[in-house]
Structures are given as structure tokens and as C-alpha cells.
User: What shape does this take?
Amino acid sequence: MLDKLLKRLLDIAGSLGILLCISPLLLALTLMVLLRDGRPVLFRQRRVGLNGEPFQILKFRTMIPQEKQKPSVYANESWKDGVPDHFVFKSSGTNPNVTRNGAFLRKYSLDELPQFFNVLGGSMSLVGPRPEIPAIADYYNQSQRRRLKVKPGITGWAQVNGRSDMNNGRKMELDAWYVEHWSIWLDVRILFTTFLQAIRGKGAF
Assistant: This one.
């Protein structure tokens, strides 16, 4: 119970402090998206959170309007035994739906910054498994659902050990390790490593 309280206090203090520090950057990015790509500035999407509860994740919009996007297929009805290990969540190739402005935001993970409001509101944590869309999470088997035992995070153990360059099997393995070995010090380590990776623009998710 004390550990969970400390984690929540870290989330509140960390997200509030970061939002105050980056408020000029948030304003600049808001204007950049608004002037170059128009409205809406923020992208809202339904994700699966703690214990499978849904919530709306916030990001800066990085893609063309949804009605103009080329369709993407995520889930497959053949996934009766869970999401297959070989499934790759995000391709390292160029996404035709991503705007030029959005490519820059994604490279340095700047599109993720509004998620600090998710953390402040309690639907996410600073550190945890990345929240998945229901179309994929609905196919989780019992083992894969272990990652839903903690709040989803802005960054996590999987993201600092490969980020977008991994398949589902490796991602689930790393997320399960985090759930089983969680500590405040592990969260601090992940946050520090994420900061370094974001600066280098390495493996952005």
C-alpha cells in the first residue's frame, strides 16, 4: 500500500512539475500543429488501462484527418490463443498517414507530452506498460493480461529496451518483468533512461 502511495505521489509531483516546466513548449507545439495542420490539435483515442478499464489517451495530432487516412489492420480473428509473439506493433517504415510536422513530433516523442495530463488525472502513470488499443487488448490471453495489473505509463521497461523495434513476444516479456520487479527506484531508472533516449531521438515510440 505504501509503495502504491509513493508511486502516485511521484506521478503527481512529477507530472505537475514537468507540465509547469514545459508549458512554454506545450504552447509552441500547440501553435505549430494548429498553424501547419489545423484542428484538432490534440488526438484522443480509447485505450485500455488498469484492470482493463478504458480511458481516453491524449497526444498531439501527428496524422492527417481520420477520414483521409488509409485503413490499417491491427487485430485478426485467428488470434484465439492471444496476440501472436511475432506481431510487430509499430513499423519502422514511413507511415503515409503521418504529416511532416507529425514525423518531427514523433521522432523526439513530443507528441506524447499531453499524456502528463493523463498522469495528473490518474488514468496513467509516469512509468508502466504502454496502453494498448482495445482492438488488440481484446485478444490478450491470460498471460498477456498480466500487463494490465498496473497503470499504463508514458514510458516503460519495454520502451527503454527496444521501444518500437520489437515484436509482441519481446514486449510482453519485458512488461511482465516490470510488473514482477517494480520498485520506485526502477521507475526512476526508467525515467532517466527515457530522458536520454528522447534527447537522442532514438527508437521513438
Summary: The chain has a mean pLDDT of 87. Residues 163 and 203 are 6 Å apart (CA to CA).
